[in-house]
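EI: anyone free to look at a 156-residue chain?
SC: sure, send it
EI:
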Amino acid sequence: MSTNDIASSNTVSGDAAAPTADGTDADRPGRGLHVTFWVLQALVAAFIIVASGTPKLVGAESAAVGFDLIGWGDWFMYAIGALEVAGGIGLLVPRLSGLAATGLGLLMIGAAIFNATILDFPVVTPLILLVIFAAIAWVRRYQTRRLFTEGFKRAA
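SC: here you go
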């Protein structure tokens, strides 16, 4: 069995972390998808940082209204704003992009739940962002896997 056959069988069996013959990850996206997702990540990162996270960090009235209705105090608004800005920055860092998208996706699940149950706000925006973050996390899963496997090897 050749090295290419082993790489092919690893991809089919779901063990996509195994390197191929040229040493790259088997589930790394093709060039076109890779570039498309970097453009998407840059646009979504700009939105999350500028339009969502920063207003919470500076205590903008538009952001404070919703958090006042939740009743958990300003600390919660500042914490969510900090997480959104950090996640937006993480989307722009190749090694962290998949993990950042996963974290932002979890924030969007929370936002959708709060919007639907407590705030009576539209749920559409967090759900659209959730789908986008899930797609980014899926396409960048090879980076997340590499982050954890190399991180654990260095720690040991």
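EI: Residues 31-57 form the longest helix (27 residues).
SC: 👍
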